[in-house]
Specification:
Layout: H1 3-9, H2 13-22, H3 36-65, H4 67-76, H5 85-102, H6 108-111, H7 114-129, H8 133-137, H9 139-146, E1 157-159, E2 162-164, H10 166-183, H11 196-201, H12 209-236
Antiparallel strand pairs: 1-2
Helix pairs in contact: 1-3, 2-7, 3-4, 3-12, 5-12, 7-12
């Protein structure tokens, strides 16, 4: 395997394992609570950055294999930083289109094991954080997360023509908004956030690091599954 492929196939959950392991020795006493937001923000930004780089690596790899795709994606319809939903959706559709080139009639609804992706995503995130001091620091959010049986509905991701349907798109929009606030440090000069209007319109249970982590892991698994499928077909042909 080459470096790009190794990176593309490496799961983002590795970062979650690292942060849980790194904080075992800190404990969960009252004196540790001021650290919590710094640690949550740090791993959250590492995960979003990891995913942005993975998207770029996927595009580069596809463009290396297919010159027509290279011209289209790098000359006619370029991408941004690959952090937005729209950029991720474009890459998702690119993968589906290139898979269809080798497997006529490919249907993403049945072409990848969505049930396994859903189950593994939820199970891994819950298992990783259960009993950790990060779960203790954000206990209310974690308990709410653990009790939510509809975090990532099966009919809301990897559907025909869409990476996410409306429910998960709304969750991702909250994630992306928070990513921008953290990355650009707007907390340092904007006070009284979120506003009452924002609170009124949003769903507070989705404004939760464990939900954000779950969405990022879900995206990672979708892209790994599609990329693996594509490479298998490409190498067979």
């Amino acid at each position: 395997m080459d470096r790009h492929r190794d990176f593309i196939l490496s799961p983002v959950t590795g970062l979650l394992k690292e942060v849980v392991a790194a904080n075992i020795g800190i404990g969960d006493g009252m004196e540790t609570y001021p650290l919590s937001e710094y640690i949550f923000q740090s791993v959250f930004l590492k995960m979003t950055g990891f995913q942005e780089q993975k998207m770029k690596c996927i595009v580069w790899d596809l463009a290396t294999d297919d010159y027509d795709y290279r011209y289209k994606r790098y000359s006619q319809s370029t991408l941004g930083e690959c952090s937005s939903y729209e950029d991720k959706k474009k890459i998702f559709l690119d993968l589906v289109e290139l898979i269809t080139k080798y497997e006529t009639g490919f249907d993403v609804n049945t072409g990848i094991d969505k049930a396994a992706i859903q189950n593994e995503t939820i199970t891994e995130v819950k298992t990783l954080f259960s009993g950790s001091n990060l779960a203790t620091w954000a206990q209310n959010n974690f308990l709410e997360f653990m009790g939510d049986n509809a975090i990532i509905p099966l009919n809301q991701f990897a559907t025909t023509g869409k990476l996410f349907e409306n429910v998960l798109q709304s969750k991702y929009n909250l994630l992306y908004y928070h990513r921008n606030r953290c990355a650009h440090n707007t907390f340092s000069y904007q006070e009284n956030l979120p506003t009452l209007n924002t609170l009124l319109k949003s769903n507070p249970k989705d404004d939760n690091y464990f939900v954000r982590f779950t969405l990022l892991v879900l995206l990672d698994k979708i892209f790994i599954a599609l990329y693996t499928k594509y490479k298998l077909l490409f190498e067979e042909n």
